[in-house]
Design a protein that fits this description.
Blueprint (H helix, E strand, L loop, with lengths): L1 H25 L2 H5 L4 E11 L7 E10 L3 E8 L3 E6 L2 E5 L5 E3 L4 H11 L3 H7 E5 L5 E6 L2 H4 L2 E7 L6 E6 L4 E9 L6 H7 L1
Antiparallel strand pairs: 1-2, 1-11, 2-3, 3-4, 4-5, 5-6, 7-8, 8-9, 9-10, 10-11
């Protein structure tokens, strides 16, 4: 269950990192100062398990505020959320109960660096390989603890990743399609949870 939650959050944050890092390398410092504080959109996710013939599908919304944190809300099939607040990974179940996800601290630390657009944090944790002929980036974990869970992550779509695929060590796979909203506003109820 922890791997499921971490993989969801990890994929989206890395996707956002890809956006921040690529933008940072392609834009002048002046333009980087004008980067939006909020990146928001919707996702559709398919989780493939080796033992199942069909994927488990889910969908929802995400919000990444550079100052407040990250919120990943699954709406279908069950309303729940995972969020990163002050470096702590939290889970909100379908009853509204909130609890800390134990063991998420190390990963959360990496993710915070990633959210800030620190490409060096990504290079320390992953080997980065660009696919020839397309706008995809392959990430292979360097650390044994990450390799125990993840074999690789593919991020495609350029400045704003459109698809993210996470390949797990046990043969399972998660595919996420992202759609971004321009001029999005974070709902006050979500903002309150991140403050």
């Amino acid at each position: 269950m922890l791997l499921k939650h971490l993989s969801y959050l990890f994929l989206l944050i890395i996707g956002s990192l890809s956006f921040s890092s690529t933008a940072a390398s392609n834009e002048s410092s002046e333009k980087n100062l004008m980067k939006p504080n909020l990146i928001a959109g919707t996702f559709e996710q398919n989780k493939f398990f080796k033992i199942l013939t069909r994927p488990i599908k889910s969908s929802g919304d995400f919000y990444l505020d550079q100052k407040l944190g990250f919120y990943w809300q699954t709406i279908k099939p069950v309303n729940s959320a995972i969020f990163l607040k002050s470096g702590e990974l939290m889970e909100k179940d379908h009853h509204g109960n909130i609890k800390s996800i134990v063991g998420g601290g190390t990963l959360a630390s990496v993710l915070i660096k990633a959210i800030s657009g620190d490409i060096n944090a990504l290079k320390n944790e992953f080997e980065l390989l660009k696919h020839q002929g397309n706008d995809c980036l392959e990430l292979k974990p360097k650390q044994e603890i990450l390799r125990q869970a993840i074999t690789k992550i593919d991020i495609c779509g350029g400045l704003k990743p459109e698809s993210i695929k996470l390949f797990e060590s046990k043969g399972n796979k998660t595919e996420i399609q992202l759609t971004y909203h321009e001029n999005a506003i974070m709902p006050e109820a979500i903002r309150a949870q991140l403050q």
